[in-house]
Write the structure tokens for this entry.
Amino acid sequence: MQENKQRIAIDMDDVMADASGRFVEWIAERHGVTIGREELCTELLNKAGIPYEKIREWLWEEGFFRHMQPLPDSKEVMKELVKKYEVFIVSAAIEFPQSLREKVEWLAEHFPFIDWRYIVLCGHKYIIQADYLIDDHEKNLISFTGKPIVFTAPHNIHLKGFERVNNWAEIGNKFL
Amino acid sequence: MQENKQRIAIDMDDVMADASGRFVEWIAERHGVTIGREELCTELLNKAGIPYEKIREWLWEEGFFRHMQPLPDSKEVMKELVKKYEVFIVSAAIEFPQSLREKVEWLAEHFPFIDWRYIVLCGHKYIIQADYLIDDHEKNLISFTGKPIVFTAPHNIHLKGFERVNNWAEIGNKFL
């Protein structure tokens, strides 16, 4: 335990890794349709003839998680964050068993300075003991016992009641 | 959150799954040497001509975790435990990326009544918020913020200072 440091739990998909961008990429490749990430909602996808249930199946496909892009500035800010805070990466990935190894390998590739001991792959995140949680999903933020911070993603722009960061530069401004 | 229930975190290897038995099995198969599980220590293994560093490599081999046997009475007691408590399975498995999927599949096979949301694959366990932790390793027990309980395994028989359970029948007696 790093007694003298505050602990920050940080989500992966749509916080560190560009999961929305990955959907946009596969929709273009597989359906030949170019959409913006703000159009990634059930209603607009259905309108474009791409059923949400169909693209959700990609979450169980080999390689979907492995080749996401890190979000802008995430590497640079994270590198400083781990010096000042005890950072844990916390991803609710158990639902997708093929993703588990991919996520550990993705972190080793893009964030090699994060030791494996600080990675948590789980389901319910309310079991995590930390001072802060940066996450894009209301269900994780609402049950967190520390201070929750919402990271802006297409599906949470209307979410109220949480402190918000829009990008990694803002995480840097707040914590560094 | 199951507000009205106490929360128990339970380790996998050498608590739910017979990891020691798996080593004994592979030593017999690969080295043609029959040893008891109480002989699974560096000194005795070296004496038997089986270097510890060599067999530790098995932890990174496909299939090592997937085909362990559940420990006696674990299924029956666990089935009752999840009714009365909020049980999380917590395994420090991130070090072995190939084991992650195997562990989720192993739990689905032997403990199908445990929902994926209650599985945690991690490194440091001190991030886990629970009332109890049942584990075989001192490093996990000593930093736990709830009540630690040591589960007897060959490598912890001399460990003092923790409440101890020797088997799943004793877990049942204590908690049910």
